[in-house]
Amino acid sequence: MKKLNKPDKAAVKSKSASFVTSLFCYALLILVSFIILFPFISKISASFMSVEDMYDRTVNFIPRKPTLDNYKFVMQAIKFASTGLRTLGLSLLCAVPQTFVAAMTGYALAKMKKKLGKIGMGMVLATVLVPPQVIMLPMYLKFRFYDVFGIVNLIAGKQINLLDTAGGVLPFIILSCTGMAFKNGIYIFLLRQFYKGIPEELEEAAFIDGCSTFKTFFKIVLPVSVPMMVTVFLLSFCWQWTDTFYTNLFLKSDAVLSTAIFSISGIQQQGGGNFYETVIINTAVILAILPLVILYLFGQRKLIAGIERSGVTG
Q1: Domain ranges of the chain
Q2: Which of 73, 99, 222, 277 has CB 3.0 to 4.6 Å from 233, enough for a Cys bridge?
Q3: 3-class DSSP state for residue 160?
Q4: Residues 6+ away with beta carbon under 8 Å from 120
């Protein structure tokens, strides 16, 4: 029998090590995927269960008597059509200006001098670390008795209650347009990292052609950054869609889907008890996140491309 020489032995060892590493990575990936997907799959399964299935110990994941009655009941209870439209409008009102403001701020930080840009970026990221509960009361009082340097009180004779104006959406619009809302520091950071990867020659060519900084940003930089802006828009939209903290703080109950779900938590249907209450809540959660799943299916290419090109380094 022919003996393997040293190079052949090294190749076999390398292939074996590569196989073991790949096997470990795939096993870890399957485990993590199961941990993430299991709660989602269990909620989908429970949403199709009837009262009998919930109390039948032999039924685990596949309902014996699948029904759509849970979805019909939840859609009527939370007024899914009208509540969903309000949620969509509020999410768009927040996500669109927030994306644009984050793009301008990120570009400014990317083009600052190195030390000044790092200081500015550090201050922006510091806003993400502040728990919203810390500023909850000051923020509520600010919009409940809104004034700008005393000008509103001087002109109108009193402060304005923005919480009862335009359905309570003005605080969301103001926070989004001023770049202070809903983890905006993360979006600024992603866009800043993206802009740092744009070749300076593009901007220098625009300056030579007589473009100002704003014209360069809108004509050259903004079109190039569309994938990253789509990523930021999707993140901002999803964050607002599922938000419960700010919506409970500024809006009336049952105004959007995230708060309407809690309004049915005490419902007892057909004498189902606590077990059936869990089914109703699971069904409401599935209905609430279904539009986000559809949005992801349409925007996943832009989302992945934006994250890949963001270059979260330096």
Answers
A1: 74-310
A2: 99
A3: strand
A4: 109, 112
Q: What is the chain's percent helix, strand, coil content, to nearest 5?
A: 75, 0, 25
Say how far apart CA 245 and CA 251 lie, in whole Å: 10
Rg (CA), the chain: 26
Provide the 3-class DSSP secondary structure of residue 11: helix
For the stretch 204-230, pLDDT in tens is 888 888 888 888 888 888 888 888 888
The two counts, helices (H) then strands (E), for the chain are: 16, 0
Q: How confident is the prediction for the chain on average, in pLDDT?
A: 79
What CA–CA distances, in Å, run from 59 to 49, 69, 116, 173, 278? 9, 18, 62, 47, 16
Q: In this structure, are residues 175 and 181 in contact, taking their beta carbons and an 8 Å threshold? A: yes
pTM of the model: 0.78
What SS3 state is found at 152?
A: helix
Q: Domain 74-310 maps to which CATH number in 1.10.3720.10, 3.40.50.261, 3.30.360.10, 1.50.10.10?
A: 1.10.3720.10
Three-state secondary structure of 102-146: HHHHHHHHHHCCHHHHHHHHHHHHHHHHCCCCCCHHHHHHHHHCE
Provide, rounded to the nearest whole percent, the portion of the chain with pLDDT above 90.
4
Say how far apart CA 27 and CA 23 lie, in whole Å.
6
Per the listing, tokens 């090294």 go with 10
Please say whether the beta carbons of 269 and 76 come within 8 A: no
Each residue's pLDDT tens digit, 132-166: 888 888 888 888 887 777 776 767 777 778 877 66
